[in-house]
């Protein structure tokens, strides 16, 4: 049996999305910046997609900027806001957490080379931000705060509305990486009170290589990519028309099926957790907290009882037809223990035994049952 439980890394392309994209790969190939009919056709498609996405998150179309994905959106927002804010107000402090995706952390570290000060907020045992630490570290020199909405490795949920209300009182810009939450739960940028947001198409059965940045009107931001007037002079380069059309179609489908999909994956995760607790309730820990996002299930085998070898464990699952990961797909090729798990308080030896299963609407209870059978065998194999 083949089971794909790595949907937090990427999801299968919805056939309906693919059908919508095809004409923009073959028939409607014009450059959207061209003024002739070929260009006008693709320009209309892009602007219609922008309206679909804006409406979905209760934003204005002019606040949506198309990118190559979540990583570029994070880079664009963090670099663009901090550099512009510094040039206008001389503020040079950035605040983020120790549980962020590397596209946020590494961008922030890069900015420290240019004189920016980086403040990393601790996360608790469930990989959530420590709220009091966040509030205490904010001062008048802060240009931007960035906190992940749903942790891509553990599924822990940060209180974005509460965090943004703190920054709003202190007149500091707030960004959230919503790559894992977008299209899976309701996001209203005005209710959340955020100034910027990042999202990606391929996490919601859309195409790879497409995403967007939401930047609230009035938020200072400069381009990351120069050399073209596209995206209102904020993101140079010919637009990926087929990808953008695919993203909009994926959003339409997500909007129609969001509640149903959420309830389905929640039942799958609950069944999986129940099975794991039967297998070993004492030495396999469930990460992310009691209210963890149902699309993600992160478990840690405690080294006290298990011989933790990340590569061997994942290979065992793969040989038995189960695709899972040890953390973020962007870093899982290295098989290093997750910085999120380490910063949640686990020892290195425990972190090496962390596996992430992540679910999609296409997954079934039969697949969960099979995965539990294989996990039972894996427990026997890796028990000390």
Describe the protein's topology.
Elements: E1 3-4, H1 15-21, H2 37-56, E2 64-67, H3 70-89, E3 93-97, H4 102-112, E4 117-121, H5 131-137, E5 142-146, H6 160-169, E6 173-177, H7 189-192, E7 196-200, E8 211-215, H8 230-233, H9 241-280, E9 284-286, E10 296-301, H10 310-319, E11 322-323, H11 339-343, H12 348-351, E12 354-358, H13 365-382
Parallel strand pairs: 1-11, 3-4, 3-5, 5-6, 6-7
Antiparallel strand pairs: 2-8, 7-8, 9-10, 10-12
Low-pLDDT residue intervals, each spanning 5 or more residues: none
The profile of the biggest β sheet is: 7 strands, mixed
Mean pLDDT metric = 96
Q: Going across the biggest sheet, name each strand in turn.
A: 2-8-7-6-5-3-4
Structural class: alpha/beta
The secondary-structure element order is: EHHEHEHEHEHEHEEHHEEHEHHEH
> For the CA atoms, what is the radius of gyration?
21 Å
Q: How would you describe the shape? A: globular
> What level of helicity do the residues show?
40-55%
Number of strands: 12
Helical element count?
A: 13
Cα(first) to Cα(last) distance is 28 Å
Strand content: 5-15%
Written description of the protein model:
This protein is α/β, with parallel strands linked by helices. It contains 13 helices and 12 strands. The strands form 3 sheets. The chain has a 7-stranded mixed β-sheet, sandwiched between helices. It has a 3-stranded antiparallel β-sheet with strand order 9-10-12. Helix 7 (189-192) links the parallel strand 6 (173-177) and strand 7. The longest helix is centred in the last third of the chain and has 40 residues, at 241-280.
């Amino acid at each position: 049996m083949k089971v794909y439980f790595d949907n937090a890394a990427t999801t299968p392309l919805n056939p309906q999305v693919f059908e919508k994209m095809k004409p923009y790969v073959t028939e409607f190939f014009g450059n959207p910046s061209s003024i002739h009919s070929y260009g006008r056709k693709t320009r209309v498609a892009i602007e219609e997609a922008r309206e679909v996405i804006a409406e979905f998150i209760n934003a204005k179309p002019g606040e949506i900027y198309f990118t190559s994905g979540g990583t570029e959106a994070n880079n664009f927002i963090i670099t663009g806001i901090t550099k512009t804010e510094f040039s206008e107000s001389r503020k040079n402090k950035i605040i983020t957490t120790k549980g962020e995706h590397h596209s946020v952390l590494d961008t922030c570290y890069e900015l420290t080379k240019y004189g920016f000060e980086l403040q990393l907020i601790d996360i608790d045992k469930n990989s959530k931000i420590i709220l009091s630490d966040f509030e205490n570290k904010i001062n008048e020199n802060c240009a931007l705060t960035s906190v992940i909405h749903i942790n891509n490795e553990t599924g822990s949920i940060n209180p974005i509305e509460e965090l943004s209300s703190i920054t709003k009182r202190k007149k500091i810009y707030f960004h959230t990486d919503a790559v894992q939450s977008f299209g899976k739960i309701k996001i209203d940028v005005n209710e959340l009170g955020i100034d910027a947001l990042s999202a990606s198409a391929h996490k919601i059965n859309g195409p790879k290589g497409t995403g967007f940045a939401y930047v609230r009107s009035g938020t200072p931001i400069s381009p990351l990519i120069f050399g073209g007037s596209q995206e209102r002079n904020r993101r140079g380069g010919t637009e990926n028309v087929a990808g953008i059309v695919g993203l909009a179609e994926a959003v339409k489908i997500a909007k129609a099926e969001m509640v149903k999909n959420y309830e389905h994956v929640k039942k799958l995760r609950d069944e999986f957790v129940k099975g794991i607790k039967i297998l070993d309730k004492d030495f396999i820990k469930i990460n992310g907290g009691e209210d963890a996002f149902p699309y993600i299930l992160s478990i840690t085998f405690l080294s006290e009882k298990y011989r933790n070898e990340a590569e061997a464990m994942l290979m065992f699952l793969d040989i038995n037809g189960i695709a899972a990961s040890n953390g973020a797909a962007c870093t899982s090729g290295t098989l290093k223990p997750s910085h999120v798990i380490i910063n949640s308080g686990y020892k290195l030896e425990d972190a090496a035994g962390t596996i992430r299963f992540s679910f999609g609407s296409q997954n079934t209870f039969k697949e969960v049952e099979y995965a539990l059978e294989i996990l039972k065998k894996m427990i026997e194999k890796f028990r000390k």
